[in-house]
Design brief:
single chain; twelve-stranded antiparallel barrel
């Protein structure tokens, strides 16, 4: 886990899987491409079958982030949501580290970030094209930038797999919340 949480830059790459009904991501070091961890969706058989017939927004989500040894680092959950999504991020010790609450807006998408006690940690805002997101703390200082990267025209047209570049601007204590936010952005704006 220490290797994963001590970086200033990450690549979060969604895996392409034509027959997979669950989402899967690789966390990579952008400098050398080394594998830092993974994020995999865990779904029951009933949820996997329901996914073939229902939009993902109507189904609950459970994602588990693991380090290179396969040890759980974070758990990201969301109940079924009809409108705005609320993701809960828990550490390996099951302690709530934060909540990411989608704010409704057509032109300026946003996510409120709170700690486990409901105190604001900041906001994540993005442009209307859903490509670049800025995580700022409560004082307006940049914490992280999340960029949706293009992987080429063919991949964009034929798959829903996305790649994100995450850059941490402040200290790395917000790395895990920022990594969780990257996947939440994918679910909110590029999957649902």
């Amino acid at each position: 886990m220490a290797n994963m949480a001590m970086k200033n830059k990450y690549i979060v790459k969604e895996m392409v899987g034509a027959t997979k009904l669950c989402e899967s991501y690789m966390i990579l070091d952008p400098q050398n491409g080394s594998f830092l961890g993974s994020i995999d969706e865990e779904a029951t058989t009933a949820q996997s079958i329901a996914r073939a017939f229902l939009d993902k927004a109507f189904l609950p989500v459970k994602l588990v982030m693991r380090d290179t040894q396969g040890n759980p680092v974070l758990e990201i959950t969301r109940p079924a949501a009809l409108a705005c999504s609320i993701f809960t991020v828990r550490g390996a010790d099951d302690k709530v580290l934060g909540r990411l609450k989608q704010k409704f807006s057509l032109m300026n998408p946003g996510i409120a970030v709170e700690d486990g006690n409901g105190q604001s940690l900041g906001t994540i805002s993005g442009g209307w094209r859903f490509r670049n997101f800025q995580f700022k703390d409560t004082n307006g200082n940049p914490v992280a930038t999340i960029r949706h990267k293009s992987e080429g025209l063919l991949r964009e047209l034929l798959t829903t797999a996305d790649t994100y570049e995450l850059e941490i601007h402040s200290d790395t204590s917000m790395s895990l919340i920022s990594l969780a936010a990257t996947v939440c952005i994918d679910f909110i704006y590029h999957e649902d």
